Amino acid sequence: MEFESLAIPEVVVIRPKVYSDARGFFMETFRQELFERYCGAYQFVQDNHSRSSQGILRGLHYQLEQPQGKLVRVTKGEVFDVAVDLRKSSPTFGHWVGRTLNEDNKELMWVPPGFAHGFYVISETADFQYKCTDYYAPHDEKVLLWSDPDLAIDWPLLSEHPLMSEKDLQGSLLENCITYGC
Ligand SMILES: Cc1cn([C@H]2C[C@H](O)[C@@H](COP(=O)(O)OP(=O)(O)O[C@H]3O[C@@H](C)C(=O)[C@@H](O)[C@H]3O)O2)c(=O)[nH]c1=O
Fold this sequence. Notes:
The protein is mostly beta strands. The chain has two helices and 13 strands. A hairpin with a 6-residue loop joins strand 1 (2-5) and strand 2 (12-15). The longest helix is centred in the first third of the chain and has 8 residues, at 32-39. It is globular and about 55 Å long. The N and C termini lie far apart (36 Å). The mean pLDDT is 97. Bound molecules: dtdp-4-keto-L-rhamnose. Pathway: Carbohydrate biosynthesis; dTDP-L-rhamnose biosynthesis. The record marks 136 as: Participates in a stacking interaction with the thymidine ring of dTDP-4-oxo-6-deoxyglucose. InterPro entries: RmlC-like, RmlC-like_jellyroll, RmlC_Cupin_sf.
């Protein structure tokens, strides 16, 4: 299992060691001791699984009072996964990092609390599974607008308009968002 910090160093990509044989493959997808060493001493309390069609964009989501760290991966298909730093005191506040996650590279991405998170589906369908460090709290959920020009996220769009929920279409610009540490 390898850990790689991205341009925002608290966001970490994890590459599991994959053991392939005539039956298929085996890999460990989470190991607490290594996770703590490279990402921090977090505990996970909720696991999620969503399925999306090509061209869907989910996000960018964050919870303000109950921030969630998310350990995400794709078990079928391919997505472009994005984390935006919303920690006001951070030198990378307002910056984003993105990574292509798919069923072949089997990478996981650690998105710490204090970040907005979203993804865009590149394959025909994608199964997206993730562990969260806090519970879903709908009253606390905020949506940062995926297309905010100040963020300038380089989404690998397959068509001009991604398919999105009504909630996500009405996300807020970063300049109007309440962020962490304000
Ligand atoms: C996220 C979530 C949703 N739900 C319910 C609420 C709603 O009826 C339905 C669909 O919810 P949403 O439209 O918010 O699902 P979705 O857009 O997939 O939300 C997710 O997006 C990605 C980008 C994230 O980062 C996640 O943390 C989460 O916010 O599922 C739960 O019961 N528990 C949960 O943890």
